[in-house]
Every structure is written in structure tokens, then in C-alpha cells.
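User: I'm preparing a small set of examples for a lab meeting where we compare how different chains pack in three dimensions. I only have the primary sequence for this one, and I'd like the structure in C-alpha cell form so I can line it up with the others. Please keep the answer compact; I'll paste it straight into my notes.
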Amino acid sequence: MTFDSFDCKRVNLPLEQRKNLEHAFQLARRFSESPEGWLILQGENGCGKTHLAASIANHRLRKGYPVSFVVVSEFLDHLRSSFGPESKATYDELFERVKSAPLLILDDYGEHSSTPWAQEKLYQLINYRYNARLPMVVTMCCSLDELDESERRVSSRLADVRLSTVYYISAPDYRADHAQGRKSKADPRHERKG
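Assistant: Understood. Below is the C-alpha cell output for the 194-residue chain.
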């Protein structure tokens, strides 16, 4: 996933959504050149959040800079498994590596199970990065207002305008849109509306 492979000119979108997607693309592109603060990308599944986040990571890696790209639910699973006797990394090593990464990308925040343990670990991670002002990208399907009441400590940090740029991508699911386009091409009787 790169900026070159991101389709920000989806011609079947209304002009307003195309402009919105183009703006998200430009925000991500600028962030990839000089990651400062936090970029919070919100929107429904398939709108392009993860592609843009991965594009930032790949751009930074190509320039020789370290990046940690973490799917939140998988990160929590790895943390839990680090307590097991078969674990190759200790909990402390894994947690430290992620929380102090020069650039951290948290993908699918809010899609994890919201146990008190998970909430506490994510709060510790985000609070550390907040206090240290370490750059971060967060993708999420929900808005900050929709986070569970128990995650208010996290949402207040993510929403801090002194650190965060929060952007909602209004484009619909690209995969559904793409599948509809293939269906239309395969069978001329399927006319697209909209």
C-alpha cells in the first residue's frame, strides 16, 4: 500500500466526497514527509484509512526511518500471549518497543474487545506517547465521541487540538464500490445508479 496505489480520484463518488478523500490523501502525504503530532483518520470500513496509514509507514520505511505499524486487536493479543511460557518476547520488551517507537501507527482503534485490562494498556500506551509528544497515526471506524465512557481518558488525548489532526473520511467502502463496478462490467444489465 503506497500513495501511488491509492485511488483518491474515485470518479463514481460525488464531488464533495472526492474532495474529502483528496484532502485526506494530502494530509497523509504531508504527515509522511514530516511526522509531527498525531493524525487521526476516521471513517467507515473500507474508506481508505488503513491504506493511507500504510502508505505513511511505507514512505517512512523507504526513507530509512523506523515505523511500528500495529493492528490494535492483534497488539493486545500479542501482549496477552507474552505472559505465556512459550513467548519469544517478554511483555515489557513488546510494550516498550511499541510505546516508544519513533512513529507508531495504530490501526483499527475501537475495534478491539474493551476489557478493563485492554483499556488500561491502551491508555498507558497513548498517555506515554501523549506526554512524550511522539508522532502517531490512528485509524478508527468510530468517532472519538462514540468511544466507550471508560475510554474518555484516551479520547481526550486523541482530541487535543494542540497535538492531533482529526479527519473524517466521508467516502464509502471502496471494496463494495469496486465489487459493484466489476458486477456492472460483467453484466451490462446491472446499471449503476448514483
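A couple of notes for your slides: Residues 179-194 have pLDDT under 50 and may be disordered. The helical segments are 15-33, 49-62, 72-81, 91-99, 116-132, 152-158, 174-186.

User: Perfect, thanks.
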